[in-house]
Amino acid sequence: MNMIELRRLKAFVTVIEEGNITRAAERLFIQQPPLTRLLQGLEQQLGVQLLQRLPRGVRPTEAGNVLFDEARTLLARAEKLSEAVRRAARGEQGHIAVGFTSSAALHPFVPNLLRRYREILPGIATVLEEAGSGELMDALIDQRLDAAFVRSPLRDIPGLSIEPVLQENMLVALPPGHPLALADPSPLPLTALANEAFILYRRPAGQGLYDAILAACHRAGFSPHIVQEAPRLPATLSLVAAGLGLSIVPASMRRLGGDGIVYRAISDADELCAPLYLALRHNQQSPIVSRFRDLVTEALGEEQRLAAQ
User: Fold this and answer.
1) Distances, alpha carbon 205 to alpha carbons 79, 196, 275, in Å
2) What is the helix (H) or strand (E) element at residue 246, kind and residue range?
3) CB of 71 within 8 A of CB of 11?
4) SS3 175
5) Residue 259, exposed/middle/buried by CB under 10 A (0-12, 13-18, 19+)?
6) Does the pLDDT value for residue 75 go beyond 60?
7) Which InterPro entries does the protein's record reference (predicted)?
8) Which of 3, 48, 145, 239 is the most exposed place for a label (fewest CB within 10 A)?
9) Are the C-beta atoms of residues 174 and 260 closer than 8 Å to each other?
């Protein structure tokens, strides 16, 4: 049997609902003869009589009643399907995979943005992944991720664009009882750390921050004495708390708490900050990703306006 056209089913359902071909034609904004031909074509296609013609209208046969119930369900599903497709085309339905580094996830901007995105676009299913910057970039290239918040610029990667989002201060994380933790809480110059043992996160996991710390120390006239490297920033803080050394971390890392870790600000003169970037694939046509990027821009604009007040 050939597939039944939806327009024939819609015509049939409308006729049954109105009980009159003339009124059904008016509701469908067509003339009566074309409507009659649609009904006749449907009966011919199915090989059964669907309507009984009455002096003042029509009513369904037993076969017509069965078709009426099934057709209404099918038309409702078709309408939902059409609306779902239109919503997807507008970037309002579908899914998006977003990655972030562990330190990016701790900055209030990222969780606040994801929460707002879910509230504005509840039809979008969001898949989240935490990894190092390099791993996130690989996932973007392999199309396992659609967007990622990273700390490293990692520019000139074919197929990817890196857009700056914001910058935050960095802090010195000190173990309990360290002399610098007990001193004046005013901002520390990096030169005060020249003879200290440093704990940093491995460069492949945090190239941008690792390189920024080393460059700032070199500008201050020394090379940091790195005694331990950790795979992730949270692990770095655990080693600091254990007294193995100090570290320099984004200010948002203090949200993790820690057993007595003391944080000291760094002198502005050292120009050390932690950037946050949004990484995307070049020429990405997905309306869902476009909406996400637009929301990042809007949220950042709101933060800047609030900061200026």
Assistant:
1) 48, 23, 15
2) none
3) no
4) coil
5) exposed
6) yes
7) BudR_PBP2, LysR_HTH_N, LysR_subst-bd, WH-like_DNA-bd_sf, WH_DNA-bd_sf
8) 3
9) no
Residue 43 CA to residue 37 CA, distance in Å, equals 10
- 101, HSE (Cβ side, Cα atoms, 13 Å): 33
Closest CA to 170 of 233, 99, 98: 233
Instruction: Report all structural domains of the chain as residue ranges with CATH numbers, in order of start.
Output: 6-90 (1.10.10.10), 94-166+275-308 (3.40.190.10), 169-273 (3.40.190.10)
pLDDT of residue 133: 80
Least confident of 44-58, 200-214, 253-267, 273-287: 200-214
CA distance 123 to 119: 9
Average pLDDT, rounded, for the chain? 86
What's phi and psi for 76, nearest 5 deg? Answer: -65, -40
pLDDT of residue 204: 58
**Average pLDDT of the segment spanning 5-25:** 89
How many other C-beta atoms lie within 10 A of the C-beta of residue 142? Answer: 8
Asked if residues 231 and 201 have their Cβ atoms less than 8 Å apart, the reply is yes
Rg (CA), the chain: 32
For residue 250, which amino acid is it?
A: P
Stretch 91-104: mean pLDDT: 84
Q: Two tokens at 232?
A: 């992730």
